[in-house]
């Protein structure tokens, strides 16, 4: 049995590649853009297409809510920024780019703050909506637990260190692996 364990230690490709717990990370990275796109299509875009945004942001309307348009566009901007971040992570992950772990940590660290910011903005415009309603508490708890699990994994995992090694460009790799010989003139 010791020989089998020694074989793993001697193999430089052991713990390298998109396997192990990185499969769970991959599932999250694939699902998050899908879920955000669904949320945009189900919750935000219909407010434009059915005229709700126009009615709620028109001062002459009986249903006017001051700053509702600002809230809507802030929500839209935050969701699109998160969608772009998750799509970027998707590319970096499957490309095995060396920046993936740092950017992943940054994004999942920001999510709880974005949830809180969103909740505070909604409460300022719609005071009847509690800052810490059930949905916000659920999203906040989920994002904190997610970060608490995956940030340490990204920082300490040997598989992460061995997998995400691709440089920014082929030039960077060539420059770092070649040596220059001074000209004799």
From TrEMBL:
Residues 166-185 are annotated as: Disordered. Pfam families: DUF2569 (PF10754). Signal peptide: none annotated. The chain crosses the membrane at residues 21-40, 67-92, 99-117, 137-156. InterPro entries: DUF2569. It comes from the Bacteria. Keywords: Membrane, Transmembrane, Transmembrane helix. Residues 174-185 have a biased composition (Polar residues). This is DUF2569 domain-containing protein.
